């Protein structure tokens, strides 16, 4: 049977998320792979990869919270907002730790963020980084992103270097947060390092490097590295079908809500299991039609 589940990778620096997928296709000898969120080549850390039928879950993830540890340097502005870019400005730094801490609340909660030019955002069919490499800069609309927590881990006023932990939602650019903090302090700032320590409920403790995956492939035990797909949806309640209901469900027959046990009045989506514990996928109750509608089979 084809492998299916979540393979949490510890992405190394220098690889794009697509590079990781490409290398895994060679190791796993399969093409049906997807990832749950792009990491820049500079970044390292947690990258959940969806293997086999689990790849169909890419657009259904209920938890897209990510946690990062980011190094930063005050006093510098680059075109990429990180240490890989061309320096545009340098400024003397005379920022105390207290002054730095006072601006952090401006960048927590629901905030507005302008995507950097060196990003994969598409405008009029072109990636922003493609335009940036051509020396072009275009106007970008601000986007609303969610930053649940922004915590200073360390700071050295004499050098302007430090590290922060950021807990944020989908579409947040950590280097832009640091750039904007630098602007608020009137001295500029760049990101010098980035490690994603958690994503989609998985942490570095769940993650493997390429060598571990290759060894598992050589020893024919890749399935032992995979986390079951339903772990992605642990926030949803489980709905267990009888053997007869499971047969109808597989055949596309709509199940009446009154036939089901375990429905909760405030639940909008369920993990659906067969009588033997097999995970079928996601479904939601349609009370107007008195039936269970399939969201996606996985």
Please give a structural write-up.
- With 298 residues, the protein is α+β, with helices and mostly antiparallel strands.
- The protein folds into 3 domains: 91 residues, Pseudouridine synthase, CATH 3.30.2350; 129 residues, Pseudouridine synthase (2-Layer Sandwich); 62 residues, Archaeosine Trna-guanine Transglycosylase, Chain: A, domain 4.
- Helix content is 18%, strand content 34%.
- The strands form 4 sheets. Strands 1, 2, 3, 4, 7, 10, 11, 12 and 13 form a 9-stranded mixed beta sheet that branches. A 5-stranded mixed beta sheet has the order 14-16-17-18-15. A two-stranded antiparallel ribbon has the order 5-6.
- The longest helix is centred in the first third of the chain and has 12 residues.
- The chain is elongated.
- The two termini are 15 Å apart.
Per CATH, the class of the largest domain reads Alpha Beta
N-to-C span = 15 Å
| Reported CATH architecture of the largest domain | 2-Layer Sandwich
The helix-and-strand class reads alpha+beta
Provide the CATH topology of the largest domain: Pseudouridine synthase
Computed over alpha carbons, the radius of gyration is 23 Å
The number of domains is 3
| Helix fraction by DSSP (H/I, runs of at least 4) | 10-25%
Instruction: Catalogue the unreliable spans.
Output: none
